[in-house]
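Methods — Computational structure assignment.
A single polypeptide chain was analysed. Its primary sequence is given first, followed by the predicted tertiary structure written as structure tokens.
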Amino acid sequence: MRAGFSEDFMGYKAKFLGALLAFCLVLAWQAEAAQLATKKALTLEVTKGIAAAAEAHAKENGWNVVIAILDDGGNLLYLQRMDGVQIGSIEVAISKAESAINFKRPTKVFGDAVGGRTALLALPGAMPFEGGLPITWEGEVIGSIGVSGVTAQQDGMIAKAGTMALTKILK
């Protein structure tokens, strides 16, 4: 009778240890899955560097513009209105930056796509004029820039000058 008890006990012990191991594995997996994401974010210093590069390009060409830079959540980090720019360009620059961050693509995409597809104009928040660009770092969208004040193509060139400076700023 004692031998049967020992075998039963050993069977329960093995089952208990197996269940305990499975429980520990689940806890370890949950601990791994519960980690917060680490993400890059624009700082005010970096934002000012992007704006300075965009402004330099505008000045080189004798263009006065509004420059708006948003973080990855669409919050305004920086707004600059150069002398002599119409006040209407403030809202346009911000709208271009919002469109670029909300859709994670250049606003030029919407302008190019409109063609005969006027339904795109009803897309909430889509600005169909060049001059809004996502700001990316290491494949992640970390913000956006919107420029307004000259032609849409010129606004786009200024915005690109700002985003292209990011690598230089971060070295």
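Note: The longest strand covers residues 140-148.
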